[in-house]
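Field log, afternoon session.

UNIT: design team B
ACTIVITY: writing a sequence onto a fixed backbone
BACKBONE:
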């Protein structure tokens, strides 16, 4: 699979306006002006950072709100790439930047501020680690892992649908793994449901590889792992690759450290539990290569997947399906633009080197694949339905 897709010589119509970071009365502006100040204070409180780190974090916030974009001052491995990515934007006001670029650079600068890349005591220390750890140790996670015992006795189609819905909703899935019916009371929020096409893509290529581009760690990574295990155990796929971020990113995106923490959380549930057996199987699958964990610098790049480098495209090509999890990956897949909501998903994702499915809870303005009737009904509610996390999509382009 994948050979029918021409990649970079199949260009999208990108005439829709790019979402900018500082446009008045937009969700993007609220991220920088409402969310980031709170985030900076939370990061400061997460570790006993010294005065230098605290000052650098607050200076970063001040720059994003009132200043112009300055380049990295570092010899870190990605400095050359950022110099290239930022060439069009240095010296511009942050609000003039594309939202996707500005957010990505904000998080890269945040890591610089806390000394993540510098030699010293804070090198390699995840500024978001305490929040991730607290979530994995929460009572909600304990209850969801216990519910795996009930799910293990359900018929295979019910298990598959329950796990795919849990992977879709992540920490929005109030009942977690107890979604045995496949709806869990959230079906009204599912605007597009291409699960049939998703399974058909796997059925069309037996004994093939699946890629899953992960989104968040903790409570959202656990159902992703459970879904991968189910597909491997049932033989729906012969092998799977889980793509992770190379460094902490967007507060809670999953790294290799987060994957190991999730596996340990599963395994400590005990040998007599479904969660414990799941953790042991995945641990063994990683050891044998049936499940591979990989990363690439591009997953922290401020660009869409249509700009992925040739080596990453080659690594993905040939798979039966790539599953893109979460809102950020969706923005990178279809383009971070004010697209007409009725734009067909396949028109925006058809360049991808494999058949691709998006499992996404809506947390930003980008949307494709809806009917005009859906859009009218959602707009009539007066609610910020594009960004409040109450709606979701399962979309597939083959």
């Amino acid at each position: 699979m994948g050979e029918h897709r021409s990649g970079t010589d199949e260009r999208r119509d990108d005439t829709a306006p790019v979402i900018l970071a500082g446009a008045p009365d937009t969700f993007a502006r609220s991220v920088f002006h409402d969310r980031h100040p709170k985030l900076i204070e939370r990061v400061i409180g997460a570790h006993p950072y010294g005065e230098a780190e605290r000052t650098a974090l607050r200076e970063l916030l001040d720059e994003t709100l009132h200043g112009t974009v300055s380049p990295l001052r570092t010899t870190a491995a990605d400095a050359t790439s950022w110099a290239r990515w930022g060439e069009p934007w240095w010296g511009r006001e942050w609000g003039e930047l594309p939202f996707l670029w500005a957010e990505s650079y904000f998080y890269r600068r945040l890591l610089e501020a806390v000394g993540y890349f510098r030699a010293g005591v804070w090198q390699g220390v995840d500024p978001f680690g305490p929040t991730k750890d607290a979530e994995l140790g929460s009572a909600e996670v304990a209850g969801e892992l216990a519910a795996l015992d009930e799910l293990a006795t359900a018929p295979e189609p019910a298990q598959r649908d329950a796990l795919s819905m849990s992977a879709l909703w992540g920490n929005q899935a109030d009942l977690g793994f107890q979604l045995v019916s496949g709806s869990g009371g959230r079906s009204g929020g599912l605007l597009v449901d291409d699960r049939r096409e998703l399974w058909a893509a796997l059925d069309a290529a037996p004994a093939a590889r699946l890629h899953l581009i992960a989104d968040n760690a903790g409570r959202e990574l656990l159902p992703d792992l459970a879904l991968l295990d189910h597909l491997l155990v049932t033989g729906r796929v012969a092998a799977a690759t889980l793509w992770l971020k190379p460094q902490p990113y967007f507060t809670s995106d999953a790294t290799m450290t987060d994957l190991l923490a999730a596996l340990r959380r599963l395994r400590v549930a005990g040998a007599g539990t479904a969660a414990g057996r799941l953790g042991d199987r995945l641990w063994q699958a990683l050891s044998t290569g049936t499940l591979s964990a990989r990363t690439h610098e591009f997953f922290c790049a401020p660009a869409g997947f249509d700009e992925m480098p040739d080596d990453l495209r080659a690594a993905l090509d040939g798979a039966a399906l790539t599953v893109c999890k979460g809102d950020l990956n969706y923005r990178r897949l279809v383009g971070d633009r004010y697209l007409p909501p009725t734009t067909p998903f396949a028109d925006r994702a058809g360049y991808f080197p494999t058949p691709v499915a998006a499992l996404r809870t809506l947390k930003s303005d980008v949307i494709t694949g809806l009917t005009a009737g859906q859009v009218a009904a959602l707009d009539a509610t007066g609610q910020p339905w594009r960004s409040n996390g109450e709606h979701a999509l399962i979309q597939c382009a083959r």
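LOG NOTE: The CA atoms of residues 317 and 368 lie 24 Å apart.
NEXT ACTIVITY: expression trials, pending approval
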